[in-house]
Amino acid sequence: MIPLSVLDLANVAEGSTPAQALGNSLDLARHAEQWGYRRYWVAEHHNMAGIASAATAVLIGHIAAGTESIRVGSGGIMLPNHAPLVIAEQFGTLASLYPNRIDLGLGRAPGTDQLTAHALRRNLAGSVDDFPNDVMELQHYLDAPEEGQKVVATPGAGTKVPLWILGSSLYGAQLAAALGLPYAFASHFAPQELMNAIAVYRERFEPSEQLEKPYVMLGYNICVASSDEEAAFLRTSGLQAIMALRSGRPVKLPPPVQDFESRLNAQEQAMIRAFTECSAVGSPATVKGRMEEFIERTGADELVCVSAIHDHQKRLDSYRLAMEAWAG
């Protein structure tokens, strides 16, 4: 049985506030720890009314302080938005406060629209093409300082916070393999290159001080309820949010609606199917079967599960039922 983890976007549900979303994230993390999830990751997004995890390192600290043993990290920090030294100091501080519990997943997308990305840039000459050098610079700051090193991350130096490369294409797979880092593929929203990326990563992997052999974690959508019908209904919140985002108008997470997919035209239905290919929706038995099929097909070492449900208690139930089915 491979481990399960949680990826949380700190969804702000329609009718609620960011403060409530952040409180829900901590509550879910505490329950996830009790239920046996391995890690709890939050993602950096900006200028989105429905996502409250923009200050990702701050939220990681909040969750780590409110839990005891579960690993907490970023899925991910969008490194082009930040100077590597600043991230080394932030995560070095987290690692100093919560030893052996912090993960640092790194992505090269801005996590927002182009206008907001411009506002976030640490300098106007920066580019996503700087990503490999930024990752290696960050590694340098988190490693033990060399004699005579002029710039030292304090805290940060010597903490060797585990780095992960995130991606949804062959680019991230190639970089993770070359650097000998674990690879997290965003199959929960961009599954098109999934199998190719896994193959490239495993074939080209070079062992490193951090990792001896390839390790693949895959994003996976879950929506679990007592029946297939209830789960399909609850899932419509996430589907509505996906459609709004793809239309360029991100919204707070809407309440579920009946027969949502039947209202879509053929093109929209095809987009939804492509977007949510890596998903398990239904009763515990249904979801466990889908997860087993997915793991057999991909050989994943770990799944990081996303459950976008409007009602917080229903979202807790989804994660609880998923783990009970998986562990059982």
Keywords:
single chain; 328 residues; TIM Barrel; 8-stranded parallel β-barrel
Structural description of this entry:
There is one protein chain. With 328 residues, this protein is α/β, with parallel strands linked by helices. The chain has two domains: 4-221 and 299-310, TIM Barrel (Alpha-Beta Barrel); 222-298 and 311-328, no CATH class. Helix content is 43%, strand content 15%. The chain has eleven helices and nine strands. The protein has helices at residues 18-35, 56-65, 84-97, 114-120, 131-142, 170-179, 194-204, 228-246, 266-275, 284-298, 312-327; strands at residues 4-8, 39-42, 71-78, 102-107, 163-167, 183-185, 216-224, 279-282, 302-306. It has an eight-stranded parallel barrel with strand order 1-2-3-4-5-6-7-9, surrounded by eight helices. Helix 1 (18-35) links the parallel strand 1 (4-8) and strand 2 (39-42). Helix 6 (170-179) runs parallel beside helix 7 (194-204). The radius of gyration is 19 Å and the shape is globular. It starts with a strand and ends with a helix. The model has no long low-confidence stretch (mean pLDDT 94).
Concise overview:
By secondary structure, the protein is of the alpha/beta class.
Give the SSE map.
Elements: E1 4-8, H1 18-35, E2 39-42, H2 56-65, E3 71-78, H3 84-97, E4 102-107, H4 114-120, H5 131-142, E5 163-167, H6 170-179, E6 183-185, H7 194-204, E7 216-224, H8 228-246, H9 266-275, E8 279-282, H10 284-298, E9 302-306, H11 312-327
Helix pairs in contact: 1-11, 3-5, 6-7, 10-11
